[in-house]
Each structure stands twice: as structure tokens, then as C-alpha cells.
Amino acid sequence: HGSDAHIASELVGLEPDDLVIDIGCGPGTAVRHAARTATATGIDPAPTMLRVARWLSFGRRSATYLEGTAEDLRLPDHSATAAWALATVHHWSNLAGSAAEIHRVLRPGGRFVAIERHTVPGATGLASHGWTDAQAEAYGELLTAAGFSDATVSRHPGRKRNLIAVRAIAA
What we know:
Helix 1 crosses helix 2.
């Protein structure tokens, strides 16, 4: 998800003093991308993915990893300035709970971006992994209900697939 990480960095306006969380980090590609500019923490529920991420990130002091889920990030309140979730939200079982948890760990004014594959209604199999336009709009509304402001949906061409992003600010 290197191109997704580049888009996420642009959408959150990643700065050197940021503390960014990658929710559902997998092998840590986006964490390593963020760690070139800022301090980054990857969160993932899979110990195997975290082992791979730590191995690939060996020697990068600005990249750390924790076991957790979107509903339980295991970080202190207001401990991050930015967060993103790249191609993972469509797997989450409790969208409202995860939105509240992300809001909890972001400082006021913290930026959150979720990026998914842009799908069409009725897609099946792997093609259904992502969001339709309506699902992205609904997620933006859910973030607003969780205390975020300025939720916006944007579309981005990708190398292999088109992407849809929802960006919001922790109020």
C-alpha cells in the first residue's frame, strides 16, 4: 500500500512533529513511509503481521508497533495528531466503536483518513473489498456522529485500482 500511504500523507498533511497511527498496519509499509517524516505507530490485531513489520522496520526508531484493533487502539487519550486506515475499514465489525476510539486517541484538531478501494454496488468477491460512493458518504456521516468535523469524501486514481478516501478532523 505504498501509493495509499503517499495519498494518506498528503490528505493528513503529514508534518515532522506529527505522531501518526496506522490502524491495521499489516507488514508496516505505511508506517515506514510515515516514519520518514514523522513518528509513527502501527496497530494490528495479527501478531504475525507485527513480527514482519518489526523485522522490516529494524533500526527505525520513529516506527513502533502495537497489537490492537480499531476498537481498542491501546494508546492514551489524545496521544496522536494524525491517524489513517488503509484498506482496512471494510473489515471492521464495529464502525461506530472504532470511530469513537479513533476520536479518543486523536488530539483536538487531529486528522483522520480512511482509504478504501472504490467499488460499485453489487460487487462480489475481492471486488467487493472497499467502498461504494454511498458507503464512503455514510462513513463520513458516522465520523461526524462520533465527534469529528469537516468530513469529506474524495476520489483518487491508483496504479492498480481507483481509491476513495474519507477525511475528518477530531473536534
